[in-house]
């Protein structure tokens, strides 16, 4: 089983619908992230969380919200989806305790299409 | 502002060697990462450099010069499965990762 699991893997929805992407991890990491990836633009950070009580906006947080339900769970919501939110979304975790590099471990991705 | 530059696309021949460059300007430096990403898949970790010099791991090597804000990823004995995008990322003084847009590597027989 994957250490970082995203659901759903693929989703097609309509403009204006509410969408939730879920992420769970078994790595025991405190830090979790949501990225979106568009062709030619690389990875862009949406939100990140360093522990259950800590939520921070990334560079492109407008139109998104997150919830850190537990150390192992971090969900991303689109309250009212729009077509330019069509993208590949990745959840990731990291560990910056002493001796760790801060390497990111990624989920398999959630491909979202907004019509 | 913070910036990571790497070539958009490169082409190489199976069995050859290719070097993918990455230059960066960031607020502080806490390490540089290289990731490989096949189309439609998640990025996977390749290497980490925090001190100047060359780190070798099998067919892949990564070099860092902090004074020049420069790194490269060297891939030897290229195989068709090496066709992928290669992402350079720098961890800044706040331990945030700054990502380059990635280099798409095309391997030809």
General description of the model:
The complex is a heterodimer of chains A (115) and B (109). With 115 residues, chain A is mostly beta strands. Chain A has no helices and eleven strands. The radius of gyration of chain A is 14 Å and the shape is globular. Helix content of chain B is 0%, strand content 57%. Chain B has 109 residues and is mainly β. Classes of the chains: A mainly beta (115), B mainly beta (109). The interface between A and B is medium-sized, with 19 and 22 residues.
What features would you highlight for this structure?
heterodimer, A: 115 residues, mainly beta, 7-stranded mixed beta sheet, 4-stranded antiparallel beta sheet, 0% helix, B: 109 residues, 6-stranded mixed beta sheet, 5-stranded antiparallel beta sheet, 11 strands, globular
Largest interface: A-B, 19 and 22 residues
Radius of gyration of chain B, in angstroms, nearest whole number = 13 Å
Write down the overall geometry of chain A.
globular
**Number of DSSP E strands of chain B:** 11
Q: Approximately how much helix is present in the residues of chain B?
A: under 10%
> How far from one another are the termini of chain B?
40 Å
Which stretches of chain B of 5+ consecutive residues score pLDDT under 50?
Answer: none
Distance between the termini of chain A: 32 Å
Strand content of chain A: over 45%
Question: What is the N-to-C order of secondary-structure elements of chain A (H for helix, E for strand)?
Answer: EEEEEEEEEEE
Count helical runs of chain B: 0
Number of strands of chain A: 11
| Overall residue-averaged pLDDT value of chain A | 93
Helix and strand composition category of chain A: mainly beta
In short:
The complex is a heterodimer of chains A (115) and B (109). By secondary structure, chain A is mainly β.
